[in-house]
Amino acid sequence: MTTADQESLIIRRGSPWWRMLIRDRFALIAALWLLILTLCFLFGPELFGEAATKLNLRARNLPPGSMEHGWLMYLGGDALGRSMLARLIVAARNTLAIALVAVFAAMIVGGALGMIAGYVGRGIGHVIMRFADILQSFPSLLLAVVVLYVLEPSVGNLIIVLAITRLPIYLRVTRAEVLEIRERVFVDAARALGGSRYHILRRHIAPVVAPTLLTILTVDFSIVMLAESSLSFLGIGIQPPEITWGLMVAQGRNYLSQAWWLAFFPGLAIMMATLSGNILSNWLRVVSDPEQRWRLEAPGDSTPRKSAGKNDV
Amino acid sequence: MAHFLGRRALHSAIALIGLILAVFFLVRLTGDPTDLYLPIDASLETRKEFAHKHGFDRPSTEQFFVFLKDVSKGDLGYSLRKQRPAMELVLEAYPTTLALAGVAMVLSITLAVIVGAIAAYKPGGVFDRISSIASLAGASAPDFWVAITGILLFAVTLRWLPTSGTGDLPYWILPIGVLMLRPFGLMVQVVRAAMLGALSSAYVKTARAKGVGETAVIFVHALRNACLSVVTVAGDLTVGLINGAVIIETVFGWPGVGKLMIDSVIQRDFPTVQATIMVTATAIFLLNVLIDLLYVALDPRIRHQ
Fold first, then answer.
1. A137 at the B interface (CB within 8 A)?
2. Is the dihedral of CA B113, B118, B120, B121 positive or negative?
3. Residue A84 neighbours by CB under 8 Å, 6+ apart
4. How far apart are CA B80 and CA B86, in angstroms?
5. Chain B contact for A3, CB < 8 A?
6. Which residue does chain A place closest to B148, by CA atoms?
7. Is A5 inside any structural domain?
8. Which residues between 224 and 243 in chain A have a beta carbon less than 8 angstroms from any beta carbon of chain B?
9. CB–CB of B133 and A151 under 8 A?
10. Do A253 and B148 touch (CB under 8 A)?
């Protein structure tokens, strides 16, 4: 065993992930924020659904920062006097759910296609890779616009479109990993023992690829959330009366000069969610990479022991 | 080298042809194409006449060859909205988008290379930390929201800049600034990672041992190699810039391709949508070939293969 391996073993035993999370202030704040969003996602519409649709004509276009109409009006009211805060909390479910389902769908389908492309054969592999080329070489937003033009803009179609535009990344990464893994001894052993292709892919290759895909998923979550918001903002994503943060920005844009908060807060919510996602995924990458892990272990020490010039997707 | 370029060009060409096929079939898979081309309230006679005129009543294989013939001639139908050839509209809108995306691209790459190189010089230092937070924020910000907030702050409240439209320099500041955010954020991270790798490599140690000055080490030895990674992501970056341009043009009312596309989608003008896709795909195809050429020029390892 090399010294680097021993070192990472000691480190792994020495500090559990949560202690390293607490030590990194930004990652901690990001994680807490995502936790709050998860709570909004789980319970928001049930708890605040009523408050988000209740009209209060006295609070029409109420500026933020006053507790006069109760704490729900702290972030102001919209043109119909509905509580901004309650609407934001309720919209969290749609916004997060669409992004989550889309990334998971992209990961599963892209992963499966990538495993086929990497393991099964050159012929099918080439076809799949050219398919990925087509998807990747065209702006995803334009692609989504076209598909949503031909299909109807509904939640289901929106998720399908977003998932398709994210497919190539999972596909490429999986294929590259599979090409390497399939040459390893344990795969040879499984093959020699008479394991079928399906069995080998599912039991021996998929578990090795999965952690990489999950890391990409955390980055992708932010990207997909931004894409959904953009589409909803352009008016071809989520359609009212359903709401997402992106749609709320679009609706608030019409009142920009009278009530700036209508467009500002939903956008801020998007930004804070995507930023938290990005910070946390950066942290995850450092934690899971033994070459970079020392950065979190020894906060005072800033001289790199080894080059860490890794390019990611 | 010729082999590398040939294979890359072939792959890009396959992608382009695939996209053209996809457009053709996407229109027909969903049922009657006249539904797509015509407004929802078109009468039955209009529909029949339209279907006959465009050959939708003929067998689909025949339609496909007619379609290919038209595409090769650059004929992509008439815009239903403007009663002019769709291709003309697209070509008219292109210079605006190219200027917008081009300036944003050049500025963001230049800035990102400078910031990324300085950040990588002292990893963990103050500048590195500030730039990494800034680049993360830039990459995470929803561009349409930044655009709106920018209009609110600089145009509505402070009255320093115009709210929208095209013209001389002041009209460019907000759109370019917003469009640069995401590519800049992503590029800083790429350049920083590449520079970290380059600075700790053997050839940089050799250069230092030879007594080469620090400035030359950074800008001549390390940065030149780090630039390769910039070129690698340049293609994806441009594709991303076009996404951004769609939003920016819509928010700021610029008469570019993105706005043309969104307007055409909302007003159900399919020939124009189709022409936009074709021209954009061709432009991206050419760009990919260009990037490969640049890659060969920068990386001697490929040149001597």
1. yes
2. positive
3. A64, A73, A75, A76, A77, A78, A261, A262, A265
4. 9
5. no
6. A253
7. no
8. 226, 229-230, 233-236
9. no
10. yes
| C-alpha to C-alpha distance for A185 and A218, rounded to whole angstroms | 31
Contacts of A157 in chain B (CB under 8 A): none
Q: How confident is the model at residue A216 (pLDDT cuts 50, 70, 90)?
A: confident
pLDDT given at position A106: 92
Residue with tokens 């086929």: A116
pTM for this prediction: 0.80
Total domains present in chain A: 1
Contact A271 B140 (CB under 8 A): yes
Domain containing residue A81: 15-59+69-304
* Token digits of residue A63: 């500026």
Interface mutation vs chain A, best among B19, B97, B122, B140, most A CBs within 10 Å: B140
In a domain, A9, yes or no: no
ipTM higher than the 0.90 cut:
no
Do the beta carbons of residue A210 and residue A280 sit within 8 Å?
A: no
A285 phi and psi angles, rounded to 5 deg: -65, -40
The verdict on residue A40 lying in a domain is yes
Q: Residue A52: give its domain's CATH number.
A: 1.10.3720.10
pLDDT digits (tens, 9 = 90+) for B83-101: 788 788 888 888 888 888 8
Query: Which of B124, B136, B195 has its CB closest to that of A275?
Result: B136
Looking from the CA of A277 toward its CB, the CA atoms found within 13 Å total 27
- Peptide bond just before A16 cis, omega within 30 deg: no
Measure in Å the smallest separation between the Cα of B73 and chain A Cα atoms.
Answer: 22
- Say yes or no to pLDDT of A10 above 70: no
CB atoms within 10 A of CB A35: 11
Mean pLDDT of the A44-55 span: 74
Judged by CB atoms closer than 8 Å, whether chains meet at A226 and B142 is answered as yes
Look at residue A1 in the predicted model and tell me its pLDDT. Answer: 43
Percentage of residues of chain A with pLDDT beyond 90? 4
**According to the 3-state scheme, what is the secondary structure of B132-168?**
HHHHHHHHHCCHHHHHHHHHHHHHHHCCCCCCCCCCC
Residue A3, in any domain of the structure = no
**Which residues on chain A are in Cβ contact (under 8 Å) with B151?**
256
Judged by DSSP in three states, A83 sits in strand
Q: What's the one-letter identity of residue B187?
A: M
Residue B165 CB-density burial (10 A; 0-12 exposed, 13-18 middle, 19+ buried)? exposed
